[in-house]
Structures are given as C-alpha cells and as structure tokens.
User: Which sequence fits this backbone?
DNA sequence: GTTCTTGACGAAATCGATTTCTTGGACTTC
DNA sequence: GAAGTCCAAGAAATCGATTTCGTCAAGAAC
C-alpha cells in the first residue's frame, strides 16, 4: 500500500505538503509539480479510512430498504444514487428483508461507519431510529413515515391514490370493487385502503364493505391468496384495487387460474412492474414515482448533511394515474 | 461520540482492557463485568473506521454490477449478500449503469476504502481490474469472465444453454428459429449465440442463418426493435432464442404489436422475470441461476480473503431449462 | 528464601491522512 | 539597517481502535 509518506519521500517534500497539494491548499508551483509527478508514478490513492478517521465525515450515505428484489425499491435506489453521486457521495445499499433486527443492525453499522446520513424505507411502524437521532446523524424516512420520531420524510399521497384508483374503476362501470392492501401495521397500506374505502362507501354503501377488503403482506403469494379468497366469495368482486406491485402479480396469477383477466376484471394497482408493464396489460396503474421519491429523499438528506437544522419536514409527492 | 477511552474511564480500567473484552481476549471476570456494564450504559459502539485503519481489513465486500434495475443482478446480489452476511461481512452495492468510467471509479473507491474484496459483474470485456490485482486485493468476476486478467470467475455454461434452448424449439416443431443476442463485445452474448448457431445449422443448414441473427444491447428497447426487424423479414421466423430477460420483455411487446404471442410463436429466453414469470406465459426459460451465481462468487471471494493463494479458478454453473 | 513462571493489565506505538503550530527565510517599510 | 509582514513548508498532534512490550504481583519450584 503506497502512503502519503511514500509520495512525500519520492517528491522530496513532507507529508504535509503532499496533503496540501491533494486538498488544493496553497503550495509553490514547483512543489506541486514534484508531488503530482511522484503521486502519478506511484499510482497513489489516498486512504479513505484514514481520511475519514481524521475528518469525522464520510461522503457515504446509507440506504436501507426492505427488499432489494422489489423493483419499486430499486427504482427508488436509483433516484437516491443519481442525486447523491451528483453531490459527490457514494451510496451503500443495505437490504433488510423486512426484518427489524437486520434493520437495527444496519443502523448500527451506519453509525459505526460514520456514514454522513441514512435514508430509510422503514420495515414497519416500529422502526427505531432513536440512536441515529440521538447522535445527530441526519435521517430521512422514505415511502413510509415514522410515527415516533421527529425525522424528515418523503411519501406519496397514498389516500388520494387509493381513492382515485377506486373511483376510476367505478367510473369504468365496475360495481363490486374489492381491495387488497398490505399489513395493517404499515402506514401506506392503511392509507391506500382508506382511499378505497371512501370511494367504495359512496358507491355501494357501507354494507358489505368488509367482505371485499383483504389484508395481505405486500408479497406475491399474499396477493395470490387474497385474490383467490375474494373470487371464492358468494358474491365475488368484479374489480379490485391492489396496494402494491408484487401482490398484483400474485393477484393476476389467481385471476388467471380462475379464467379471468383484465380488462374484463377491473384491476388498479399501486406501482408498476417495469419490464412486464401492467399498463400494457389493461391494468390501471397508480404511478408511484419511486425514482422521484429517492431523489427527493436524497435532496433532503443532503440539505441536512449540509447543516440545515430546521424542524422536521415531510414532503408529499403526488401519484398519477396512468391510462 | 463515545469512545473506548470513555468506556475505560467509566469502568476504571485502561483502553487496552476494554479492547480485550470487546475482542474476547483473556481478562479477569471482574474487569469484564465492569467494562460490559460501562459499555452498555454509554451505548458504546466501536468506531469501525478506526478499527479498520488499524487492522487494515474491513469486513466489507464491494459488489459492482452494471444495472441495479435488472432483476437478474438483484437476485445475484441477494445471493452474494446471503453468503457474505453468514460470514460476518457487509455488502456494498455499486451500480455502474454499464458505464466503464463509473466502474473504474467504484474500483478505485473499493481500493481506497480498504474493502476486503470485490465481486465484479464486468460491464464489458475491457474492464480493468489490474489495479486490484496489483494490490493483491481479492477479485471475483461473475456472469462474465475477464479475458485479460488472472482472476477467479463464476459463469454459467452459456453455450450449452443456447444450444438446448434452440434445440427444444426445433423439437417443438418450429422451423425458423431466430436469435436475438447481446452486444458482440460481451462474452455471454457470443456464447449464447454460438449455442444457437450450432443447433440452427444442424436443423436448417448454414444458408440464411445470418438473416435470423440480431445483435442488440441487452435492454428492453433493443429486444423490441430486433424482434420488429425479424418480423419484417420476407421470410420471418416462427420462433426465437432471446439472450436475456430484458430483451425478451421488449420482444414480447413487438410480438404483441404484430398480433403474435407464445406459445404460437416459439420463444426461449435466458433468465426469467421474477414477478411476471415468463414460464407462466408459455415461454421456455433457460434458468440462469442468478442467486447461486452470487453465492458461488461470494464463496470464492471469501476463500481468497481467507488467504487462499492458489491459481485462478473458474466455476461454471449449469443452466436448467424450465417447462 | 530465592528464582521462575504465569497471568492480568497498563503505557505507548501504530495505522494514514489532516490540521494546528512553528520555523526560517524573503520582502516591506520607515 | 532594524523591525514588521508574509508565505512556503516541516514537525508534531490528532482521530479511535488494536497490539506490542513491559511491569507488577501472586503462586510454584527447588
């Protein structure tokens, strides 16, 4: 490993001078030339570990997400990365598999690694960011907000999205519009469902609303099973609002098994599948702007890293309905 | 920030003793009790930066991939992560967008960050890992091997996969089997195509083979366009081998636009789309075991990190044809 | 009773870069 | 020409953990 001292020796100057050249401080042209030549010959790269230890800051931001195989989160990661890279930061991606314990581990790592800040897509409402907050380490929650903590958040207007999804199905002539939402402990699931409930209550009355509501787990199998149950009802639905992309993939399977498919059976989904576009298959898509969520979260975090100490903000992005 | 010295002071011992407790060296039970109590009270987390600077090793492995939004690579990442986590390592994911310059930047970062090793899915044949090799930093290439460097690699038997994909289409009665493969500078693209060519030559003769071959870019749009071109031929194909999942999504679009679809039009694809399974849509899937690739690469890398200095190995995994 | 072993534990060096703090010399200024 | 001002650049402290080396005391061996 070639160090700053090797470069200094080769250039015939002190390590201090080398450091100055590297960091753009004032140095005589001659010294600068010598140092640059020596550094190039030795292919010197400053040791980031040492630099970080000394400087106490890191130019790395941690991004903690529940499921790296969900296209929604990869698009979000892409957004974070774009913005962070432009500001000279690297992004470290941490995948928790929706496991609160792994989430806690990664938060500890972020602290111990002296990362400049953390963007967290919380596994559930109980996510504990208190240690980060206590250390004044900037944190931004994305997609879901954190009930218990005073931290910045970026979310979408889930309730409005759920409402307009249901309304557009009713407008298209469907009469029994069901809802498959996520775990009741998850904020987005509650809000999307609430939007649906409001529209459904208006069109069909409160009567049998509960029959048409299913809580699942935001995963493919959960969606498949929930749709199968709905189809097995004495009075099955003719359409459904599904609260995320993975459950929609499962629901489509279940529909297929029953000989049904959109657009004959109405389906409106939160979030698309990029390479197998729901939109192309006669499904209404509530566009959750994942990349923009990531970009907004990164922007907010970078402001905090830059020293912004104002009160916690929440940024709400709009959903758009495609088709 | 609470340091080891704070803990030492609180426990009434030296920093040395605290370090020993943390790392499981021999200490009297009484000291150990005091230290643990103090550490708990102060919520002490050892500073990884300092630890790494001293220890020269990092318990972080870098995973550099060309496209984080491609499910193939996220599945691969999952495999790497599983294996690495089990061995106590964290994984840092770096996304290059197929840009050799970004790849080079991330390789520099891996060096400067003292990562324990790097797993690289090379953007193209020219990927330059010489600096890693020169520093004796362990590297494993995954998915594609590196022509110019003596490094470990994990790949699949692309040629055999391409061959069996084409054969199974001929066996199903298709007679004009085309091929849409990736960039000619990419090894996997060449091999998959070569497998197809061998089978196609046997069944239809060498005559018009080139008409039925298209090089695209491994992306959705490339697949769409290539398929559109094939369908516009005077004698269009009745089936095709497509060399990756994204191009297959595009090819499906083009087929759809022409009023065609599997299984009427024969399609065999390298790699599935997890949430919109090709398998369910009458498409033959050559299963590229992405997760297993990741696991194998991580295993190899961990062996190298552990000190294995043997000659470079290449592990070849088998593809399986589904359905 | 003296020497040797053993074990616990602290002082200090170390990792590599950055950041004071100094120093020494060139250049002004009166 | 003496005093003051500047500026480049080196010496040394610093970040926080680990590790080497040395010390001290208790117990063992003869």
Assistant:
């Amino acid at each position: 490993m070639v160090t700053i001292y090797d470069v200094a020796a080769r250039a015939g100057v002190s390590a201090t001078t080398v450091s100055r050249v590297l960091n753009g401080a004032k140095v005589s042209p001659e010294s600068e030339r010598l140092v640059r030549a020596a550094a190039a010959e030795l292919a010197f790269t400053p040791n980031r570990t040492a630099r970080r230890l000394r400087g106490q800051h890191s130019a790395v931001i941690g991004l903690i997400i529940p499921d790296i195989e969900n296209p929604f989160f990869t698009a979000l990661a892409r957004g974070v990365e774009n913005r962070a890279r432009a500001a000279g930061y690297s992004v470290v991606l941490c995948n928790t598999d929706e496991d609160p314990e792994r989430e806690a581990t990664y938060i500890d790592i972020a602290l111990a690694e002296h990362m400049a800040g953390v963007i967290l897509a919380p596994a559930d409402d109980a996510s504990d960011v208190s240690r980060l907050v206590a250390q004044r380490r900037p944190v931004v929650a994305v997609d879901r907000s954190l009930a218990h903590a005073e931290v910045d958040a970026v979310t979408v207007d889930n309730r409005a999205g759920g409402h307009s999804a249901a309304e557009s199905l009713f407008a298209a002539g469907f009469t029994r519009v069901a809802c498959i939402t996520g775990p009741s402990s998850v904020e987005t699931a509650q809000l999307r469902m609430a939007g649906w409930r409001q529209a459904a209550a208006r069109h069909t009355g409160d009567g049998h609303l509960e029959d048409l509501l299913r809580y699942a787990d935001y995963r493919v199998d959960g969606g498949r099973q929930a749709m199968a149950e709905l189809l097995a009802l004495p009075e099955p639905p003719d359409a459904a609002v599904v609260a995320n992309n993975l459950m929609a993939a499962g629901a489509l399977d279940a529909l297929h098994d029953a000989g049904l498919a959109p657009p004959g059976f109405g389906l409106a989904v939160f979030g698309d599948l990029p390479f197998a576009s729901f939109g192309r298959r006669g499904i209404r898509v509530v566009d959750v702007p994942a990349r923009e969520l990531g970009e907004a979260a990164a922007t907010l975090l970078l402001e905090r890293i830059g020293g912004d100490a104002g009160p916690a903000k929440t940024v709400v992005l709009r959903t758009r309905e495609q088709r």
